[in-house]
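Side project, low priority. Logging it here so it doesn't get lost.
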Amino acid sequence: MPAPPEPPATPPPTPGGAESRVPGPLRTAAAYAWRIIAIGIVVRAAFSVLGQFHRIAVAVFLGLVLTTVLRPVAGLLARRMPRPLAVAAALTVGIAAVLGILALIGEIVADQRTTLTREFTAGTDRIERRLEEAPFRLAPGTFDDLQSRIGQLLSSHRSTLISEALSGASRLLEVLTVLALALFCAVFFTHSGDRQWQWLCDQLPPAARPRFTAAGRAAWHTFTGYTHGILLVAATNATLVGIALTALGVPLALPLALLEFAAAFIPLIGSPVALAVAAVVALATKGPLTALIVVVLIVIIGQIEGHLLHPLVMSWAVRLHPLVVALSVIAGAVAAGFIGAIVAVPTVAVTWTIYQTLHHPHPHENTRENTPETQPDDD
């Protein structure tokens, strides 16, 4: 039996070939580089498209945040009344609570207006006298001249200020529109968000439905855990700040505590900024010693938030390294300003959860018993 013919030998690369002139590591780096560039172009295009609809995106995000708060309350009420009525009751209670807090703050500011004016005037005079002494030794009347210059500046730019005020009024209208749309979304997400997600998954190919259903449930679990955790952090910080400022006799303790509550939604950055405002108020009204105590409070609350509360929040949602959190907040602020700084961390956490679920699904997540349509509405 004749032996099979041997395959022709592959000719060796010529010494002058292109592959011989490019080292292997450089070819690998170039292959990764153009893929990274392509991904960057796609991400940039996605952000450009989202930028055209940023109000809708913000409204949907706020609607999801409200849903994480309203859904447990609606679930409890739905045990004793029809679910649509339970959702309406939960929403009414939430709106009444927010309006009540705002009315209380307005009443406090109105009651303390005279006292605040007197204390701020006295505090400004104290600061001016200290700056005129050693080691600053500013010339007397510096602040008087500064006040007159500010008045002249305001008078010369009156038309610009009026246009800015009108622009602010239009922005206020936009904010109210976004809030109304967020409430509208929250009502439907709370009432039947699980069925909406199931309908969306049913539009996918049958083979992809179980994995995307599991990914949606994991993403919602992460988002809910993060939101509840950050609410706990904000409430804890606001309570500590309110108690400390009240004990120190700093005016506007409740409004400043509410500012701390809102600022805590920007991890690692918001709380120090809010407490810096409290320190300025304390300096102007109570003097340097009280302001120094508030600065010490900034350090203490920062340590509690950074080493106790935020690790607890991340363990509830997704374990993100503090460096990842900081970079996410900065990148979000650069890309979309204040709103970007707020949504950056939950977006990164949810994206990472979806990636892990799609690439490493657990067997029990693909069963039919764990799909959203079979879960009770009060999850």
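Brief comment: Confidence is low (pLDDT under 50) at residues 363-379.
Revisit when time allows.
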